[in-house]
Protein backbone atom coordinates (compact mmCIF):
# COMPACT_ATOMS: atom_id res chain seq x y z
CA UNK A 1 0.00 0.00 0.00
CA UNK A 2 2.89 2.32 0.59
CA UNK A 3 4.77 1.55 -2.73
CA UNK A 4 5.72 4.68 -4.63
CA UNK A 5 3.32 5.47 -7.45
CA UNK A 6 5.99 7.40 -9.50
CA UNK A 7 8.42 4.48 -9.86
CA UNK A 8 7.21 3.23 -13.28
CA UNK A 9 7.56 6.73 -14.81
CA UNK A 10 11.21 7.21 -13.75
CA UNK A 11 12.79 5.59 -16.89
CA UNK A 12 10.70 7.77 -19.22
CA UNK A 13 11.74 10.89 -17.36
CA UNK A 14 15.39 9.84 -17.53
CA UNK A 15 15.11 9.20 -21.28
CA UNK A 16 13.41 12.56 -21.82
CA UNK A 17 16.05 14.44 -19.86
CA UNK A 18 18.87 12.58 -21.68
CA UNK A 19 17.35 13.34 -25.08
CA UNK A 20 16.94 17.02 -24.31
CA UNK A 21 20.55 17.34 -23.16
CA UNK A 22 21.78 15.55 -26.32
CA UNK A 23 19.69 17.85 -28.51
CA UNK A 24 21.00 20.92 -26.73
CA UNK A 25 24.60 19.72 -27.17
CA UNK A 26 23.99 18.99 -30.85
CA UNK A 27 22.52 22.44 -31.40
CA UNK A 28 25.41 24.06 -29.60
CA UNK A 29 27.96 22.17 -31.70
CA UNK A 30 26.10 23.13 -34.87
CA UNK A 31 26.17 26.80 -33.88
CA UNK A 32 29.91 26.70 -33.13
CA UNK A 33 30.99 24.26 -35.88
CA UNK A 34 32.82 26.94 -37.91
CA UNK A 35 34.99 27.99 -34.98
CA UNK A 36 35.62 24.36 -34.02
CA UNK A 37 36.82 23.55 -37.54
CA UNK A 38 39.08 26.62 -37.59
CA UNK A 39 40.55 25.69 -34.22
CA UNK A 40 41.25 22.14 -35.38
CA UNK A 41 42.91 23.41 -38.55
CA UNK A 42 45.05 25.82 -36.54
CA UNK A 43 46.15 23.12 -34.11
CA UNK A 44 46.85 20.73 -36.98
CA UNK A 45 48.93 23.33 -38.79
CA UNK A 46 51.00 24.04 -35.69
CA UNK A 47 51.59 20.35 -35.05
CA UNK A 48 52.53 19.74 -38.68
CA UNK A 49 54.95 22.67 -38.64
CA UNK A 50 56.61 21.42 -35.46
CA UNK A 51 56.93 17.90 -36.88
CA UNK A 52 58.29 18.88 -40.30
CA UNK A 53 60.56 21.80 -39.38
CA UNK A 54 64.15 20.65 -39.05
CA UNK A 55 65.70 24.04 -38.31
CA UNK A 56 68.35 23.48 -41.02
CA UNK A 57 69.66 26.12 -43.38
CA UNK A 58 67.50 26.60 -46.50
CA UNK A 59 69.58 29.25 -48.28
CA UNK A 60 70.33 28.36 -51.93
CA UNK A 61 73.91 27.10 -52.38
CA UNK A 62 74.52 27.25 -48.63
CA UNK A 63 77.29 24.95 -47.42
CA UNK A 64 74.99 23.68 -44.64
CA UNK A 65 71.84 23.23 -46.75
CA UNK A 66 71.00 19.53 -47.43
CA UNK A 67 68.01 20.42 -49.65
CA UNK A 68 68.21 20.04 -53.47
CA UNK A 69 69.01 23.75 -53.90
CA UNK A 70 71.78 23.66 -51.25
CA UNK A 71 75.45 22.76 -51.70
CA UNK A 72 76.19 20.56 -48.70
CA UNK A 73 77.19 17.58 -50.86
CA UNK A 74 80.06 19.26 -52.71
CA UNK A 75 81.28 20.87 -49.46
CA UNK A 76 81.51 17.51 -47.72
CA UNK A 77 83.41 15.98 -50.64
CA UNK A 78 85.87 18.90 -50.58
CA UNK A 79 86.37 18.40 -46.84
CA UNK A 80 87.01 14.68 -47.36
CA UNK A 81 89.70 15.59 -49.90
CA UNK A 82 91.48 17.76 -47.34
CA UNK A 83 90.16 21.18 -48.26
CA UNK A 84 89.26 23.34 -45.28
CA UNK A 85 85.87 24.92 -46.08
CA UNK A 86 85.09 28.02 -44.00
CA UNK A 87 81.43 29.04 -44.15
CA UNK A 88 81.45 32.82 -43.63
CA UNK A 89 78.36 34.15 -41.86
CA UNK A 90 78.88 37.78 -42.92
CA UNK A 91 81.27 40.11 -44.72
CA UNK A 92 83.59 40.69 -41.75
CA UNK A 93 84.09 36.97 -41.12
CA UNK A 94 84.69 36.31 -44.82
CA UNK A 95 87.30 39.06 -45.09
CA UNK A 96 89.00 37.92 -41.88
CA UNK A 97 89.21 34.33 -43.11
CA UNK A 98 90.69 35.44 -46.44
CA UNK A 99 93.27 37.68 -44.78
CA UNK A 100 94.37 35.08 -42.21
CA UNK A 101 95.47 32.53 -44.81
CA UNK A 102 95.93 32.15 -48.55
CA UNK A 103 92.42 31.00 -49.46
CA UNK A 104 90.08 30.76 -52.41
CA UNK A 105 86.68 32.48 -52.34
CA UNK A 106 83.35 31.04 -53.44
CA UNK A 107 81.04 34.01 -54.02
CA UNK A 108 77.31 33.90 -54.82
CA UNK A 109 75.36 37.14 -54.41
CA UNK A 110 72.30 37.17 -56.73
CA UNK A 111 70.70 40.02 -54.75
CA UNK A 112 73.80 42.27 -55.03
CA UNK A 113 74.07 43.05 -51.32
CA UNK A 114 77.72 44.14 -51.54
CA UNK A 115 78.94 47.49 -52.87
CA UNK A 116 81.93 48.19 -55.07
CA UNK A 117 84.32 49.02 -52.23
CA UNK A 118 83.62 45.79 -50.37
CA UNK A 119 83.93 43.78 -53.57
CA UNK A 120 87.32 45.36 -54.17
CA UNK A 121 88.46 44.39 -50.67
CA UNK A 122 87.44 40.78 -51.30
CA UNK A 123 89.31 40.79 -54.62
CA UNK A 124 92.49 41.98 -52.93
CA UNK A 125 92.24 39.45 -50.08
CA UNK A 126 91.34 36.29 -52.04
CA UNK A 127 93.99 34.12 -53.64
CA UNK A 128 91.41 32.91 -56.17
CA UNK A 129 87.81 33.93 -56.81
CA UNK A 130 85.13 31.50 -58.01
CA UNK A 131 81.95 33.41 -58.88
CA UNK A 132 78.53 31.87 -59.44
CA UNK A 133 76.22 33.72 -61.87
CA UNK A 134 77.91 37.09 -61.18
CA UNK A 135 76.46 40.43 -62.30
CA UNK A 136 78.22 43.14 -64.32
CA UNK A 137 79.33 45.01 -61.17
CA UNK A 138 80.63 41.85 -59.51
CA UNK A 139 82.61 40.94 -62.62
CA UNK A 140 84.18 44.39 -62.84
CA UNK A 141 85.40 44.15 -59.24
CA UNK A 142 86.27 40.46 -58.85
CA UNK A 143 86.97 39.20 -62.39
CA UNK A 144 87.60 42.17 -64.73
CA UNK A 145 88.88 39.96 -67.57
CA UNK A 146 85.54 38.12 -67.80
CA UNK A 147 82.33 39.61 -69.21
CA UNK A 148 78.69 38.57 -69.21
CA UNK A 149 77.11 37.43 -72.48
CA UNK A 150 73.41 37.13 -71.63
CA UNK A 151 71.07 34.18 -71.05
CA UNK A 152 71.79 30.69 -72.27
CA UNK A 153 69.68 30.00 -75.40
CA UNK A 154 66.46 28.09 -74.86
CA UNK A 155 67.40 25.21 -77.14
CA UNK A 156 70.55 24.58 -75.07
CA UNK A 157 68.51 24.56 -71.84
CA UNK A 158 65.97 22.16 -73.39
CA UNK A 159 68.82 19.82 -74.35
CA UNK A 160 69.90 19.86 -70.68
CA UNK A 161 73.60 19.18 -71.32
CA UNK A 162 76.63 20.89 -72.83
CA UNK A 163 78.74 17.92 -73.93
CA UNK A 164 82.04 19.46 -75.06
CA UNK A 165 84.43 21.74 -73.18
CA UNK A 166 86.24 22.98 -76.35
CA UNK A 167 89.01 24.65 -74.35
CA UNK A 168 92.45 23.64 -73.04
CA UNK A 169 91.57 24.28 -69.38
CA UNK A 170 92.17 21.13 -67.24
CA UNK A 171 89.18 21.95 -65.01
CA UNK A 172 86.79 21.82 -67.96
CA UNK A 173 88.51 18.85 -69.55
CA UNK A 174 88.05 16.85 -66.34
CA UNK A 175 84.29 17.50 -66.43
CA UNK A 176 83.79 16.61 -70.14
CA UNK A 177 80.08 17.59 -69.96
CA UNK A 178 77.93 19.72 -67.64
CA UNK A 179 74.29 20.64 -67.10
CA UNK A 180 72.94 23.60 -69.07
CA UNK A 181 71.21 26.69 -67.66
CA UNK A 182 71.77 30.11 -66.16
CA UNK A 183 73.96 32.73 -67.89
CA UNK A 184 76.74 32.69 -70.45
CA UNK A 185 80.13 34.40 -70.02
CA UNK A 186 83.25 35.03 -72.08
CA UNK A 187 86.83 35.50 -70.95
CA UNK A 188 90.45 34.65 -71.78
CA UNK A 189 89.46 31.01 -71.25
CA UNK A 190 85.90 30.16 -72.29
CA UNK A 191 84.64 26.58 -71.98
CA UNK A 192 81.41 24.70 -72.68
CA UNK A 193 80.25 27.13 -75.38
CA UNK A 194 76.54 27.80 -75.78
CA UNK A 195 76.77 30.23 -78.72
CA UNK A 196 78.42 29.29 -81.97
CA UNK A 197 77.12 31.93 -84.36
CA UNK A 198 78.80 34.99 -82.82
CA UNK A 199 82.36 35.87 -81.94
CA UNK A 200 83.85 35.66 -79.45
CA UNK A 201 82.20 32.49 -78.15
CA UNK A 202 80.38 32.57 -74.81
CA UNK A 203 80.13 29.58 -72.49
CA UNK A 204 78.98 28.30 -69.11
CA UNK A 205 82.51 28.35 -67.65
CA UNK A 206 85.06 31.15 -68.03
CA UNK A 207 88.39 31.75 -66.33
CA UNK A 208 91.15 34.34 -66.21
CA UNK A 209 94.39 33.59 -68.01
CA UNK A 210 96.41 33.48 -64.78
CA UNK A 211 93.87 31.29 -62.95
CA UNK A 212 93.03 33.97 -60.38
CA UNK A 213 89.30 34.00 -61.19
CA UNK A 214 86.71 31.60 -62.56
CA UNK A 215 83.01 31.96 -63.30
CA UNK A 216 80.31 29.30 -63.15
CA UNK A 217 77.35 30.45 -65.22
CA UNK A 218 74.84 28.05 -63.66
CA UNK A 219 74.18 27.63 -59.93
CA UNK A 220 72.92 24.10 -60.61
CA UNK A 221 76.53 23.02 -61.16
CA UNK A 222 76.98 23.14 -57.35
CA UNK A 223 73.46 22.33 -56.12
CA UNK A 224 72.78 19.04 -54.34
CA UNK A 225 69.98 18.14 -56.75
CA UNK A 226 72.17 18.30 -59.87
CA UNK A 227 75.76 17.90 -58.63
CA UNK A 228 75.80 14.21 -59.62
CA UNK A 229 74.55 14.88 -63.17
CA UNK A 230 77.00 14.78 -66.10
CA UNK A 231 80.41 16.15 -65.08
CA UNK A 232 79.12 18.80 -62.66
CA UNK A 233 80.92 17.27 -59.67
CA UNK A 234 84.26 17.11 -61.47
CA UNK A 235 84.02 20.74 -62.59
CA UNK A 236 83.05 21.90 -59.08
CA UNK A 237 85.80 19.96 -57.31
CA UNK A 238 88.52 21.11 -59.72
CA UNK A 239 87.40 24.73 -59.58
CA UNK A 240 86.97 24.88 -55.79
CA UNK A 241 89.69 22.53 -54.61
CA UNK A 242 92.74 24.28 -56.02
CA UNK A 243 93.63 25.88 -52.65
CA UNK A 244 93.99 24.34 -49.19
CA UNK A 245 91.32 26.67 -47.79
CA UNK A 246 88.02 27.70 -49.36
CA UNK A 247 85.91 30.55 -47.92
CA UNK A 248 82.26 29.88 -48.77
CA UNK A 249 80.59 33.29 -48.72
CA UNK A 250 76.95 34.08 -49.52
CA UNK A 251 76.27 37.75 -48.64
CA UNK A 252 73.25 38.55 -46.46
CA UNK A 253 71.18 41.74 -46.04
CA UNK A 254 73.15 42.61 -42.91
CA UNK A 255 76.23 43.07 -45.13
CA UNK A 256 74.73 46.18 -46.75
CA UNK A 257 76.71 49.21 -45.46
CA UNK A 258 74.73 51.72 -43.42
CA UNK A 259 75.55 54.49 -45.88
CA UNK A 260 74.11 52.46 -48.73
CA UNK A 261 70.70 52.06 -47.14
CA UNK A 262 67.91 54.00 -48.88
CA UNK A 263 66.97 57.38 -47.48
CA UNK A 264 63.63 57.60 -45.69
CA UNK A 265 61.41 59.50 -48.15
CA UNK A 266 59.32 61.00 -45.32
CA UNK A 267 62.37 62.91 -44.08
CA UNK A 268 62.42 64.82 -47.37
CA UNK A 269 58.83 66.07 -47.08
CA UNK A 270 57.85 69.48 -45.65
CA UNK A 271 56.34 69.72 -42.16
CA UNK A 272 52.76 70.32 -43.32
CA UNK A 273 52.64 66.94 -45.09
CA UNK A 274 52.34 64.88 -41.89
CA UNK A 275 49.09 66.49 -40.67
CA UNK A 276 47.69 66.24 -44.19
CA UNK A 277 48.54 62.54 -44.35
CA UNK A 278 46.91 61.96 -40.96
CA UNK A 279 43.74 63.76 -42.09
CA UNK A 280 43.75 61.75 -45.35
CA UNK A 281 43.95 58.51 -43.38
CA UNK A 282 41.00 59.55 -41.20
CA UNK A 283 38.90 60.52 -44.23
CA UNK A 284 39.80 57.29 -46.01
CA UNK A 285 38.85 55.25 -42.95
CA UNK A 286 35.49 57.03 -42.67
CA UNK A 287 34.84 56.51 -46.39
CA UNK A 288 35.71 52.83 -46.14
CA UNK A 289 33.42 52.42 -43.15
CA UNK A 290 30.59 54.24 -44.94
CA UNK A 291 30.86 52.28 -48.17
CA UNK A 292 31.59 49.05 -46.35
CA UNK A 293 28.33 49.26 -44.38
CA UNK A 294 26.39 49.84 -47.59
CA UNK A 295 28.14 47.26 -49.81
CA UNK A 296 29.18 44.66 -47.26
CA UNK A 297 32.57 43.72 -45.84
CA UNK A 298 35.70 44.44 -47.84
CA UNK A 299 37.21 41.48 -49.71
CA UNK A 300 40.94 41.01 -49.21
CA UNK A 301 43.08 39.77 -52.09
CA UNK A 302 46.78 38.89 -52.06
CA UNK A 303 49.05 41.53 -53.52
CA UNK A 304 51.24 40.69 -56.53
CA UNK A 305 54.46 38.87 -55.75
CA UNK A 306 57.63 40.98 -55.83
CA UNK A 307 60.20 39.43 -58.18
CA UNK A 308 63.69 40.37 -59.32
CA UNK A 309 64.14 42.41 -62.47
CA UNK A 310 66.09 39.57 -64.08
CA UNK A 311 63.14 37.21 -63.58
CA UNK A 312 60.67 39.63 -65.14
CA UNK A 313 62.99 40.12 -68.10
CA UNK A 314 63.33 36.37 -68.49
CA UNK A 315 59.55 35.96 -68.28
CA UNK A 316 58.92 38.62 -70.91
CA UNK A 317 61.49 37.00 -73.19
CA UNK A 318 59.73 33.65 -72.86
CA UNK A 319 56.37 35.27 -73.64
CA UNK A 320 57.86 36.76 -76.80
CA UNK A 321 59.26 33.36 -77.69
CA UNK A 322 55.96 31.54 -77.10
CA UNK A 323 54.05 34.07 -79.21
CA UNK A 324 56.83 34.08 -81.88
CA UNK A 325 56.98 37.87 -81.63
CA UNK A 326 60.45 38.21 -83.13
CA UNK A 327 59.71 41.69 -84.43
CA UNK A 328 58.56 42.96 -81.03
CA UNK A 329 61.54 41.41 -79.22
CA UNK A 330 63.96 42.82 -81.80
CA UNK A 331 62.40 46.28 -81.54
CA UNK A 332 62.75 46.26 -77.74
CA UNK A 333 66.38 45.12 -77.94
CA UNK A 334 67.18 47.77 -80.55
CA UNK A 335 65.51 50.59 -78.59
CA UNK A 336 67.13 49.58 -75.30
CA UNK A 337 70.56 49.38 -76.92
CA UNK A 338 70.21 52.83 -78.49
CA UNK A 339 69.13 54.32 -75.16
CA UNK A 340 72.07 52.77 -73.29
CA UNK A 341 74.55 53.78 -75.97
CA UNK A 342 73.26 57.36 -75.98
CA UNK A 343 73.65 57.48 -72.19
CA UNK A 344 77.16 56.02 -72.18
CA UNK A 345 78.28 58.26 -75.01
CA UNK A 346 76.77 61.26 -73.18
CA UNK A 347 74.66 62.35 -76.13
CA UNK A 348 71.72 63.40 -74.01
CA UNK A 349 68.05 62.45 -74.39
CA UNK A 350 66.14 62.85 -77.61
CA UNK A 351 69.07 62.24 -79.97
CA UNK A 352 68.34 60.61 -83.32
CA UNK A 353 69.45 57.07 -84.08
CA UNK A 354 71.86 58.35 -86.76
CA UNK A 355 73.73 60.47 -84.20
CA UNK A 356 74.03 57.49 -81.86
CA UNK A 357 75.37 55.36 -84.74
CA UNK A 358 78.02 57.96 -85.63
CA UNK A 359 79.14 58.35 -82.02
CA UNK A 360 79.23 54.57 -81.48
CA UNK A 361 81.31 54.11 -84.61
CA UNK A 362 83.85 56.69 -83.45
CA UNK A 363 84.06 55.15 -79.98
CA UNK A 364 84.30 51.50 -81.05
CA UNK A 365 86.53 51.97 -84.10
CA UNK A 366 84.03 50.28 -86.38
CA UNK A 367 82.71 51.82 -89.55
CA UNK A 368 79.46 53.75 -89.40
CA UNK A 369 77.95 51.43 -91.99
CA UNK A 370 78.69 48.34 -89.89
CA UNK A 371 77.27 49.91 -86.74
CA UNK A 372 74.17 51.14 -88.59
CA UNK A 373 73.64 47.70 -90.11
CA UNK A 374 73.94 46.06 -86.71
CA UNK A 375 71.75 48.53 -84.83
CA UNK A 376 69.09 49.56 -87.35
CA UNK A 377 69.10 47.28 -90.38
CA UNK A 378 69.37 43.76 -89.07
CA UNK A 379 66.08 41.82 -88.84
CA UNK A 380 66.35 38.45 -87.01
CA UNK A 381 64.96 35.52 -88.97
CA UNK A 382 64.53 33.06 -86.10
CA UNK A 383 65.19 32.57 -82.38
CA UNK A 384 68.82 31.54 -82.84
CA UNK A 385 69.46 34.58 -85.02
CA UNK A 386 67.80 36.80 -82.38
CA UNK A 387 70.07 35.40 -79.63
CA UNK A 388 73.18 35.82 -81.79
CA UNK A 389 72.18 39.38 -82.70
CA UNK A 390 71.54 40.30 -79.06
CA UNK A 391 75.00 39.05 -78.15
CA UNK A 392 76.51 41.12 -80.96
CA UNK A 393 74.73 44.18 -79.53
CA UNK A 394 76.10 43.36 -76.08
CA UNK A 395 79.59 42.95 -77.52
CA UNK A 396 79.27 46.38 -79.20
CA UNK A 397 78.32 47.94 -75.85
CA UNK A 398 81.31 46.31 -74.17
CA UNK A 399 83.64 47.70 -76.85
CA UNK A 400 82.28 51.19 -76.31
CA UNK A 401 82.50 51.05 -72.52
CA UNK A 402 86.09 49.84 -72.51
CA UNK A 403 88.57 52.54 -71.28
In a few lines, what is going on in this structure?
The protein has helices at residues 10-31, 33-52, 72-80, 91-100, 116-125, 136-142, 154-159, 170-175, 232-240, 273-295, 309-322, 326-344, 353-364, 368-377, 383-401; strands at residues 84-88, 104-107, 128-132, 147-151, 161-162, 178-179, 183-186, 189-193, 203-207, 213-216, 245-249. The radius of gyration is 32 Å and the shape is globular. The protein is built from 15 helices and eleven strands.
General description of the model:
With 403 residues, this protein is α/β, with parallel strands linked by helices. Among the domains are: 72-255, no CATH class; 316-401, no CATH class. Helices cover 49% and strands 11% of the residues. It has 15 helices and 11 strands. Strands 1-11-2-3-10-9-8 form a 7-stranded mixed beta sheet, with helices on both faces. A two-stranded antiparallel sheet has the order 4-7. The chain has a two-stranded antiparallel sheet with strand order 5-6. A hairpin with a 5-residue loop joins β9 and β10 (213-216). It is globular. The N and C termini lie far apart (125 Å).
Round the mean pLDDT to the nearest integer and report it: 81
Shape: globular
Unreliable runs: 1-16
Tally of alpha and pi helices: 15
What is the spatial order of strands in the main beta sheet? 1-11-2-3-10-9-8
Number of strands: 11
Through-space gap between termini: 125 Å
Beta-strand percent range: 5-15%
Radius of gyration: 32 Å
Estimated helix fraction: 40-55%
Major sheet description: 7 strands, mixed
Order of H and E elements: HHHEHEHEHEHEHEEEEEHEHHHHHH
Structural class: alpha/beta
Amino acid sequence: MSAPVQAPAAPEQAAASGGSSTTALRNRLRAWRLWIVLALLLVGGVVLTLLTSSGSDRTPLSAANPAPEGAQAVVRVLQEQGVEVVQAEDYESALAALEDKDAALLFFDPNEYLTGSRLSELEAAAQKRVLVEPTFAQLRALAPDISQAGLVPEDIIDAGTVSEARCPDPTAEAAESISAGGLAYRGPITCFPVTGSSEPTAGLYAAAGDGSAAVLGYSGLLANGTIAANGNAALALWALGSEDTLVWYLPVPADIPAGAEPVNPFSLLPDWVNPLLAWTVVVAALAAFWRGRRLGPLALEPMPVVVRAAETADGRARLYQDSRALDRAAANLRAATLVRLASRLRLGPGRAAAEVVQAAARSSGRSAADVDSLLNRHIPANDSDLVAWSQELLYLEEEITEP
